[in-house]
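Good morning C.,

I know you're traveling, so I'll keep this short. The sequence:
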Amino acid sequence: MFGNRICVPDDAELKREILAQAHGSPYAMHPGSTKMYYNLKRSYWWYNMKKEIAEYVAECLVYGQSERTIQTLEDMLRACIIEFQGSWDDYLPLMEFAYNNSYQSSIGMAPYESLFWLGLSNTFVLE
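The tokens, ready to paste straight into the viewer:
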């Protein structure tokens, strides 16, 4: 024990299980890293706890964004197949174009637009 908190040994699997339960609980409502840290620190303690919680929550956010992207693409393909008939692979280039040219709130622009701006920032002028 560390005060009134349980000291968690340096066991990655055990810590991961604690984090998964804290983040996935129906009562947690997917808390951010700060809220999750304050909730967990009442009962647990381990070295670098705050950092590990932040990394875990960031990982969950990335996974969730990927899942939403996949679902969006599946919905777009399904709509094309219903509307135009045929095989999904016939419409894959169309979906890629539509998705890459659609506004993404996470980056504040379309993916193709971000490539354009990245390209400009990587160019230089020879005099």
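Safe travels,
E.
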